[in-house]
Amino acid sequence: MAAAAAMTAAVVVGVLPGPQGSAVAQEARQGGTLSIILQPEPVTLTPSTNMAQPTQVVAGNIFDGLVTYDFELKPKPALAERWEVAPDGLTITFHLRGGVKWHDGQPFSAADVKWSLENVWKTIHPRNKSLFENVTQVDTPDDATVILRLSKPSLPILSVLNGVGAPILPKHLYEGTDVLNNPYNNKPVGTGPFVFKEWKRGEYVKLTRNPDYWEAGKPHLDRLLFRMIPDAAARAAAIEKGEIQYAPYNPVPFRDAERLAKLPRLKVDTRGYEWLSPLLYLDFNVENQHLKDVRVRRAIAHAIDRAALAKIVWFGYAKPAISPVPSSLVTFHNAKLPQYPFDVKKAEALLDEAGFKRDANGVRFTLTHDFLPYGDDYRRTGEFLKQALKRVGIEVTIRSQDSAAFIKRVYVDRDFDFAISYNNAFPDPQIGVVRAFWSGWLGTGTPWTNGSGYRNAKADALIQEAGVEGDPAKRIAQFNEFQDIVLGDVPSLPLLELNFFSVYSADLEGIVEQGDQVYSSLKNARFVDAPKGN
Amino acid sequence: MALPETVSLPPARANFRDTTVGRLLRRPSALLGLILLAGILAMAAFADIAFTGDPLDMAGMPLLRPGEDAAFPLGTDMMGRDLASGIFHGARVSLLIGGVAALVSLVIGIGIGALSGYYGGRIDRALMRVTELFQTIPPFLFTLALVAILQPSIATITAAIGITSWSGLARLVRAEVLRLRNSELAQASIILGASDARIIVRHILPNALAPVIVSASILVATAILTESSLSFLGLGDPNVVSWGGMVGAGRETIRTDPHVAAIPGVAIVIAVLALNLLGDGLNDVLSSKGERR
Q: Do A233 and B58 touch (CB under 8 A)?
């Protein structure tokens, strides 16, 4: 992060040729309409309070952020040309790009950033509230400079500054209004490469090229057409026919993805989701009479063949997770940690040691499993766990329910034995990882926080210290120790690092250029040949 | 309508050809229905002997085609579960749910229909308003809502199907009872001083049984279909294997491996067809019973 802070304006994300340099032979062209799958229909188009995936997929094209993130999750300049973090971490200065205009022609300035920080990021943005909590004052000495003054350091801020993580809204349209009900939420005005044109409910959202975009020659495409196609089979057909050229976020079932990947006209790509780093995990209720014994939790960890789970249930669109901090968070991920390799004998030994012997039917005890009701992949994960644990003598009853009931059961009532769920980790563990372990969340009933009921004073202290630590190296050390503790206690077992995938037409280039691509803009995308099929 | 000469169900007669079963067997469609149903019952009965392991066990390679591996004659699904084992064990669950749910609707439907038809008046009006209430709600949506609220398990699914599918039967029984209530048979029993319960159970219901038996076989078929639809929508019991659940699980691979959904689908078709053929046959046989040919 220190390296990023020292970066200068010289670095601009440009159009890179394909990895094989294939762009040379083919003729790239300007213009054209890109049809994109948007599923499900968004509730709003402005990512200020609603963090749902479809909202962010559209909004990333309309709103430019201060930065974007590369595949290593390092920030790259966007509306901020460069930035500095003071050595004590208490001041962060952004130098903004000049000559940028809002889509309605008004000039973009430091005042917009200051207003958005004070009225959106710090107050209503669900992920950011705690990160910007320590920002006590925002100074704007001139139109191109924003200075954040903090009471305590908050380095994770530098990981959420893209267009959806810290959305900059036009002050002249929002000031003095009710931000949540402002009519511009559904006809957004941004500074990004594409301008909002029309939202026909149930059918499409249309964006057109921003002719005044600050980066010369960008975007290449004339139009983006986000289409809603609720049926998975119809989506697959539309992609195959070439009616849709870009489909992010697992638009078709895994088995269909395998089939589509073999077609020469299509590409299936798992890049562009690095900023999210989704992690599938198993929360143990540590108050359960069996699961309160750490040996039982470790035994279950040993009983699950995560490689097989990734291969069979997730069709290879996942890899075994060994830490709650996913390996895509290169700086913080620690591979030298307590490990739970697949070992049925060891699992049985641990269960025997804990005093849970097999009865006449070979059953040690019975647990009920709740799976996140987000589709058949999660249900099949539950079925996989049931079979895996049966082998070591734990009988599992699977219980299904809708998502409201699941959230209430796990996070509010805590009336469950063990449950699978997934969280996005985001580039800094402070944002997406520690919430599953910090005891401060207990009793608040907040979804996707500490579901296990885990309390560890040392882990709590490390989480809080790392939150306000200004030295990046010290934070890495703190998170290493944190990973060591929570993997030893294993209140929540990391199962898989999920790989979302996008399907897109092979005659497109520049469609996946960065680590936050799915939530960013398609300004680099262009057709290299005439698009087929329309 | 002539007064039926039997007061209770006829005892087995000397001439087999004249019995209900005998006449049923002479109808080819009904015979086919019986044979298919017997086959399904045999599959359910011998599931544990034919396939000893847990049908939910991931026994082989995922997505084997039928015939690709001799150990899995019907192939495997996306989790490597044996489809043949699933069909056999699924027959149990599907028949169990179908049978018990039909029994629940029979008890409710006959009870309400009989009381309503026999007593008439205010009781009739009150019970029929309740019946109409159930009739106006689309039964599948009603079942779906109940299962979603109660959380899916075999018991809740069976109860929900039973509770939502009795209304037609109640009206049918009511009409029959209403007709028989005013028959000379019932009038005579009243004069002889028989109690209401005795008249209903001993004299009226046995004579109203024909349409009930016919609708019972349709009720079982409908219950199997409803359970399949629920499972298909992900509201089945995930702890047991049922045909509908197997179709639902195969939905995702329908483009690449259609057999995963098609095989249990065919099983459902056969079961429902068998029950319908049987129902049609019973309908023909029982409704022509009084008319000696």
A: no
